[in-house]
Amino acid sequence: MSTPIEKEIVGLLQKGDKRAVTLLYENYADALYGVILKVLSDEDLAQDALQETFVKVWKNSKSYNKKKAKLFTWLYRIAYNTAIDKVRSQTNKTSKEIQMDASNVYMITSESLNQDVMDIKTHLKSLDEKYQIVINALFFEGMTQQEASDELEIPLGTIKSRLKIGLRELKKIYDPE
Q: What is the pTM of this model?
C-alpha cells in the first residue's frame, strides 16, 4: 500500500513536475544517504553519490513502474547502484595513477619499440570516425568497454561491434594478405 505522500510523489514524477524532487529529497534523502554512506564510508563521496542519485531519479522518473516496485525500493536500487559505481570509479582512478618509481619509461630503448606500430594513430585516422572514437577510448584513454559505453552514450553491444570492425580494418592495413 502506498502512502498519500508516495502517491503524490509518483504522480508528480509521472508528470515531470519538478516539485517531485523536493518532496523526494524531504522524505527520502536521509534514508538514501544512509544506504550510500554504508557502501562508501566517505561523507564527501556519499554526498556526491546522493546528488547523482537524485539526478538519475529525475532523468528516469518516467520509467518508474509502481507495479514492479515500491517507490522506496526503486529509489534504494538507484542509490545503491550509484554508490557501487562510485566505488568502482574510485578503484579505477586509484589503479590508473602513475607509479613513478615503478615506471620503466626511461629505460625504453629504440630497439625495444615496435617500429611497425609507431604510426598507429595515423592509420587510425583512415578509419570511419565511429571506429576511431571507440578504439581511442579503449586503447588510448584506457577505458573499459562499459566505461566507454557510459561515457560515449553508445550501447555496449555497439561498442563491441565497432571495436571488432575497427580492429579488423586496422589489421587489413598492417597485415594485407
A: 0.52
